[in-house]
Amino acid sequence: MRVKFGECLIELVRGDITAQQVDAIVNAANSQLAGGGGVDGAIHRAAGPSVMEETDRRYPDGCPTGSAVASGAGELPAKFIFHAVGPVWRGGTGGEPDQLKGAYRRCLDLAVEHHCESVAFPAISTGVYGYPMDLAAEHSLTSVRDYLQDHEQPSLVRFVLFGEGAFGAYSRVLEGMTE
Ligand code: APR
User: Fold this and answer.
1) Which of 70, 114, 137, 144 is the most buried (most CB within 10 A)?
2) pTM for this predicted structure
3) Does the CB atom of residue 133 touch ligand 1 within 6 A?
């Protein structure tokens, strides 16, 4: 599914984020940038050890929740990896929506700074971090749409969704944005 906002496109696909042919892919990292399972494990396995070496060297203090940092992409087809730290879901009253939106916005800022025309995101925080899928879809798509309407770049933002549930939730929200 694809929807245009001005000159920019938001696209939803099902699949594996590590296989995406885009300028930058986004990792769902933790604030220590210590690696993990899920998207993080898949990205580091596919990219090889140079990525963790680089993040250890450049970001010894990690990355705060709601933000992101950039590295090279090792053996992946992308040019960059943006390591985004989404919030752990604690019921929604601890600022989780603002933190999730902030993580997406920071990645889009990094994309512009690094001259990336295309970026692929996973559904940040919806795995181990427990963010409810419907709310994650609403908050992340709203954040990206608002950014594209304000900045008119990057040209392509692709959400790479792992399961049927994630794809359905994101599709419903994106469809609602066209009405
Ligand atoms: N490609 C795309 N999406 C994937 C992939 C993949 N290869 N693997 C998992 N997913 C999906 C999950 O199904 C989930 O919907 O990505 C979403 C995010 O899940 P997590 O990877 O668990 O990320 P998150 O909830 O943000 O938790 C981050 O988990 O792996 C650790 O180090 C990481 O501590 C951090 C935490």
Assistant:
1) 137
2) 0.98
3) no
